Fold this sequence. Notes:
Layout: H1 3-28, H2 43-54, H3 56-74, H4 80-100, H5 108-131, H6 140-168, H7 170-176
Amino acid sequence: MKAAGTRRLVFLALLVAMATALHVVEGMLSIPLPIPGAKLGLANIITLLTLYLYGFRAGLKVSLMRVVLGSLIGGMFLSPGFLLALTGALFSTVVMAVLLKHTSCFSMIGISLAGAVGHNLGQLLAACLLLQSSAIFYYLPVLLIAGIPTGFITGFLLNSLIAHDKKSGILRDFLRA
């Protein structure tokens, strides 16, 4: 494997590790959010960064590996919570990848917001199939109340990271060297 291919593989492994760590830590935190099941979604920063740097296939791999590894570490593999997380991750990754292709129309904050909404829709679809009831979709407005601010926060944090990288060039140097 060439040096560039090795570097890419190592960096993707680091992204998977960071996303998994954020996923696990967030699952262990008892953040007092007023909405049951709501989380900050900090691992989506890593997913969106991967999409930004490497594209859809790499972003999807990081997102899926984060959910699988996080659920294995947390002892939730193949549980309903795992299925909800997996479906949410798939939906949000696809939505963010599609919008990222049109970055002239959407900012990272807008893409992250759409990813949060996609995550909520994916989770509700999985819950609908698990519960065999479409009544779960009545919970969508409540999830959106939590998803919009958290999507904004993750988009803002990624914007800050990208702006910092444009000044320092750390990511660019690592990816190029």
